[in-house]
C-alpha cells in the first residue's frame, strides 16, 4: 500500500488496495488514516458491483439508506445511484449541485461518503471539494469569534415549510477523531442560525458560505472510469456538477454512492 498527493494540500491517491475483496485491518486503517490526514482519497481502477461497494463501505462504517427510496439500488439499500441517464427529474439529477455536507440535516450525519465512477463524460463531470480545516484557520479574527459560538439549523433540501425536521449542529467543531477544528455544514442546507433574526442569519450564512467555498480551498476531482473517491464529511464541503439529461455515452455520468456513519480509530502514525 502506498499513497501520493492528489493536489497540494488536499487529497491523496492510494495504491495497492483491491476494494472488491474484504479489507484487512491494515488496509482499513491505512485508508482511514489517509482520510483523516488528507480529507479525501482516491483508489483507481475499482470496478465494483453495488453489493461490492456496499460491502466495502461497511468496513468504514454503517451504510446509510437514503431518504428517497427510489434512488436506492434494489436489494442494496445502502447504495444510491447518481445518474443523468435514467430519465429522473431535474431535482434529483442535480440534487447535489451546490456546496453541502452529506446528511448534515440528520442528528447523526455521515462520516464518510464514497463515489464509484460507473460512467464518466468525455469532459466535465467533476466533483468540487473545499477543505474546511484550512477554511477555519483562514477565518479573519472577527468572523472566527462569531463562528466559534454559532449553531446552524439544517433541513433536507433547505426546506422551510415544515415538511422535514430541523436539526442543529455547531458551525465549528473538533474532528471526532483527530480533534482538529474545522468549519462544518457551512453551506447548503442551512436555514438559520440559532439566536439570530432572519435577516441577520441570512447575512451571516452567506458570508460564511462564501468564505468556506472560496477557490483557494478547492480541489476539483475529474473522474476516470472506475475511480473510487472517498471523503471525510467532517472536514469538507463538496459540490457536484450541473448535468443535463444525457444524450449518449459522451455526456453520461453515473456514480454509485455509499455514505456511512461511524468514526473508526486508525493507526494515525502511518
How much beta, percentage-wise? 25-35%
Helix fraction bin: 10-25%
Low-confidence stretches: none
Distance, first to last CA = 11 Å
> What is the makeup of the main sheet?
9 strands, mixed
- Measured on Cα atoms, how large is the radius of gyration? 18 Å
Q: Would you list the SSEs in sequence order as H and E?
A: EEHEHEEEHEEHHEEEEEHEEEE
Find the count of extended strands (DSSP E, 2+ residues). 17
**Average pLDDT, all residues:** 95
Number of helices: 6
Structural class: alpha+beta
Shape: globular
Itemize the secondary structure elements and their pairings.
Blueprint: E1 2-7, E2 10-15, H1 25-38, E3 40-43, H2 50-60, E4 62-63, E5 72-73, E6 76-83, H3 90-93, E7 112-119, E8 127-131, H4 132-137, H5 141-147, E9 151-154, E10 167-170, E11 172-174, E12 181-183, E13 190-193, H6 198-212, E14 218-221, E15 228-232, E16 236-239, E17 254-261
Can you tell me about this structure?
This protein is of the alpha+beta class. 21% of the residues lie in helices and 30% in strands. It has helices spanning 25-38, 50-60, 90-93, 132-137, 141-147, 198-212; strands at residues 2-7, 10-15, 40-43, 62-63, 72-73, 76-83, 112-119, 127-131, 151-154, 167-170, 172-174, 181-183, 190-193, 218-221, 228-232, 236-239, 254-261. It is globular, with a radius of gyration of 18 Å.
Amino acid at each position: 500500500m502506498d499513497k501520493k498527493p492528489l493536489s497540494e494540500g488536499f487529497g491523496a491517491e492510494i495504491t495497492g488496495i483491491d476494494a472488491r475483496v474484504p479489507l484487512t485491518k491494515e488496509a482499513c486503517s491505512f485508508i482511514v488514516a489517509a482520510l483523516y490526514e488528507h480529507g479525501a482519497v482516491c483508489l483507481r481502477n475499482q470496478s465494483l458491483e453495488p453489493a461490492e461497494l456496499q460491502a466495502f463501505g461497511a468496513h468504514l462504517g454503517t451504510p446509510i439508506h437514503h431518504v428517497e427510496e427510489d434512488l436506492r439500488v434494489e436489494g442494496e439499500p445502502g447504495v444510491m445511484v447518481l445518474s443523468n441517464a435514467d430519465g429522473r427529474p431535474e431535482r434529483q439529477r442535480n440534487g447535489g449541485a451546490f456546496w453541502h455536507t452529506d446528511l448534515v440535516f440528520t442528528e447523526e450525519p455521515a462520516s464518510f461518503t464514497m463515489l464509484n465512477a460507473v460512467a464518466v463524460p468525455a469532459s466535465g463531470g467533476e466533483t468540487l471539494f473545499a477543505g474546511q480545516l484550512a477554511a477555519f484557520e483562514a477565518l479573519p479574527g472577527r468572523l472566527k469569534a462569531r463562528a466559534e459560538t454559532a449553531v446552524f439549523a439544517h433541513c433536507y433540501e433547505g426546506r422551510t415549510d415544515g415538511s422535514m425536521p430541523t436539526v442543529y449542529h455547531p458551525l465549528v467543531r473538533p474532528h471526532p477523531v483527530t480533534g482538529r477544528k474545522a468549519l462544518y455544514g457551512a453551506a447548503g442546507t442551512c436555514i438559520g442560525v440559532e439566536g439570530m433574526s432572519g435577516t441577520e442569519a441570512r447575512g451571516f450564512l452567506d458570508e460564511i458560505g462564501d468564505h468556506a467555498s472560496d477557490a483557494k480551498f478547492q480541489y476539483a476531482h475529474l473522474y476516470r472510469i472506475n475511480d473510487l473517491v472517498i471523503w471525510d464529511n467532517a472536514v469538507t464541503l463538496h459540490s457536484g456538477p450541473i448535468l443535463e439529461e444525457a444524450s449518449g455515452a459522451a455526456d453520461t455520468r453515473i456514480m454509485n454512492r455509499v455514505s456511512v456513519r461511524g468514526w473508526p480509530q486508525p493507526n494515525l502514525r502511518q
